[in-house]
Design brief:
By secondary structure, the protein is mainly α. The protein has two domains: 204 residues, no CATH class; 117 residues, no CATH class. It contains 13 helices and six strands. A two-stranded antiparallel ribbon has the order 1-2. It has a two-stranded antiparallel sheet with strand order 3-4. It has a two-stranded antiparallel sheet with strand order 5-6. The relative contact order is 0.11.
Length: 362
């Protein structure tokens, strides 16, 4: 999150979904509830006030051959002690945003333990992930408006979430993680839902990023915390709760490798983790050459129009370009890197200025 981003103004609807997950999981993990009791009528009684037709559809929706009702029955069938363990894990991890508030001391967020007896981890994950896929998709959706009010005439789904994200962040048209293009953007789970299924619809865990950042070769399903640590988020930035915006500068090494530098040792660690997460340095190294070619193209265009260059005239031109691109940061792809390249090139003692001057007078 090189850029600051704002949470969309549909938080109440997302919080409603999280509460729906909480209510159902709590009921399923009750000592008094077993698999046989979890029927369609039982679910309807657990969700008073919801349109019965939606509840019926909700229970029937399936993915990979198992409906939501069947997934609920699988949870209810687990041993009581295992259900209590899962419920405690769920409630602990829902407090993860408090970890960014030093006045609070929430339980440490933990990845879901794999290989639990009775296949409990898979049953837990299969139940909670379905609230995102497929229920949060346009073809289905939740019977609430963006204020979290139950409304049988509307459906809240991912496309509405994205629309609200765009409206409240209308000054950001690039990927907040890498400053690249948002074409083909995807909704990412900052803490991956494979390892943190209880956060599948948690509003602070959903962020729109580019396809490249979300690919398996970059962020993919990597965890964005130090698992097992008492303060697992201390060495990490967060898109909403601890953005990197304003806490770094871009330094370009002699070999043309852009590096993020933090203002203090702690931010340096966080920037290193961000770089490892999305392979930013190696990706920007490729983009750096593109920026050099783009600037050379501008110089070539000036020469075609009859311009001749001295040290002072080229320096003045580069400074003008640098100042102009400053206003494009967040709006144009890789403007942040371009501004850093031009800032370095505006120093007539830099290797980059020498490179451009040789090109200009050749």
């Amino acid at each position: 999150m090189l850029h600051r981003i704002n949470l969309p103004n549909c938080l109440p609807a997302l919080e409603w979904i999280v509460q729906l997950q909480t209510d159902l999981l709590t009921a399923l993990c009750s000592n008094a509830v077993d698999q046989a009791q979890v029927t369609l009528n039982w679910v309807i009684t657990q969700l008073p006030g919801l349109p019965p037709n939606w509840v019926i559809s909700f229970c029937s929706w399936a993915i990979e051959g198992a409906s939501i009702l069947e997934r609920m029955q699988n949870i209810a069938a687990l041993p009581v002690a295992t259900k209590h363990q899962l419920l405690q894990h769920f409630n602990n991890n829902l407090q993860y945003i408090d970890a960014f508030d030093h006045a609070k001391n929430p339980p440490a967020t933990r990845r879901l333990e794999h290989g639990m007896p009775h296949n409990a981890d898979k049953k837990y994950r299969d139940f909670l992930e379905i609230f995102y896929d497929p229920v949060f998709y346009r073809s289905k959706g939740y019977p609430v408006d963006t204020d979290g009010n139950i409304n049988g005439a509307t459906r809240f789904h991912k496309d509405i979430f994205l629309d609200r994200c765009h409206k409240i962040n209308d000054d950001l048209r690039v990927c907040p993680l890498c400053d690249g293009s948002l074409d083909g953007s995807q909704v990412d789970h900052w803490l991956p839902k494979k390892h943190f299924p209880e956060l599948s619809c948690q509003p602070h865990n959903l962020i729109e990023i580019c396809q490249a950042c979300n690919s398996r070769s970059n962020k993919g399903e990597k965890s964005t915390l130090t698992n097992g640590d008492a303060t697992p988020f201390e060495d990490w930035f967060h898109p909403y709760l601890r953005p990197a915006n304003g806490k770094f500068t871009i330094r370009i090494e002699l070999k043309g490798v852009p590096q993020l530098q933090g203002g203090n040792a702690h931010d340096a660690i966080r920037l290193s983790n961000l770089d490892s997460l999305i392979n930013l340095q190696s990706r920007w190294a490729k983009e750096y050459r593109t920026q050099i070619k783009r600037i050379e193209g501008k110089i070539r265009g000036c020469k075609r129009r009859g311009a001749t260059f001295t040290t002072n005239s080229l320096k003045s031109l580069i400074e003008d370009w640098r100042d102009a691109v400053q206003d494009q940061i967040g709006l144009e792809t890789h403007a942040m890197l371009e501004q850093s390249v031009l800032s370095l090139a505006s120093d007539e003692n830099s290797h980059l200025f020498a490179e451009f001057f040789d090109f200009a007078v050749s």
